[in-house]
Task: structure prediction
Amino acid sequence: MERDNGETVEQATKKGTEMMDLPEGCIATIISFTSARDACRLSCVNSLFKSVADSNVVWDHFCPDYYKCLISKSYSMKELFVHRPPDLFIERVNSFVISSFVNYYGASGSTWPLFSKQRHLTHNYHYVRIYNIKFFSSNKIKQEVAIDYIPIAISCT
Amino acid sequence: MSTAATADASSSGDTTEGSVRLLTLQSEDGEVFEVKETIATQSVTIKGMVDDDCATSTIPVCNVTGRTLAMVIEWWNKHEIGAVSNEKELKEWESQFDTIDDKSDRDDVYDLLMAANYLNIPTLLDCCTSAVAEAIKGKSTDEMREFFDIKSDFDEKEEDALRKENQWAFEN
Result:
């Protein structure tokens, strides 16, 4: 391959691919194969890593599925995961969220998330446990898997 | 197992060997490889070319050196249906790609990532991306920089702010 001058030819043969040459999509896949904490540390490496490691593409892998119902313009998925801004949950937790959950999971047919009646009172928030209930059609056994807690302000309940 | 690639193919364009069509691939540095079409179509990019009838002459593989292309072809050969008798054997063979022990391993994986990305080979891309991910898991930010051989482009103030913002990831 012809190049401008001898120096660049020498440089090009000496140096192979470097991390920074890789397409952003590749870097995003690499980061999404690590963990949420690794992704946070990676975002401090340099500005390219920061832009990729903070992106929704990456955090989509770390966030529970139902966060997709909560995506808003004011918070990125990383902020949802790390800071769990209560105001967002308060704002959306009423009928909207419940119907989104049902729509979201209902579409897949077999799993339905439900709010349990069991509540924990901590500080100013109720923590409501969300269950992912799987119905096994063959033997009608249902398995409850607690997937997360959601904070709800007392005044809202 | 001998590789199906021959480095000194004299003719360009497709040839047939028995009923299997051969494709000619040329690396960035001019090395030429002849590969069975059934094997090369593990690359989504090449499959697209074959489907569109664009694979009739030499296919240039930009950004990929002969050395890397030879490794890619070895990967294809191993992943051809029926080439390896069981899953376990294949996993064992793949393990040479999915661990990064030193800088030369790391550089090979970068080259393979570039090639896998350009040629769109999902299995190889998966293997290499998870290899890099495994290598950086649990490392501190400074260790990550050292591993990637890159320098921070943040000033001290920015870095402090970032560390504060991501503080939970630095706590043990």
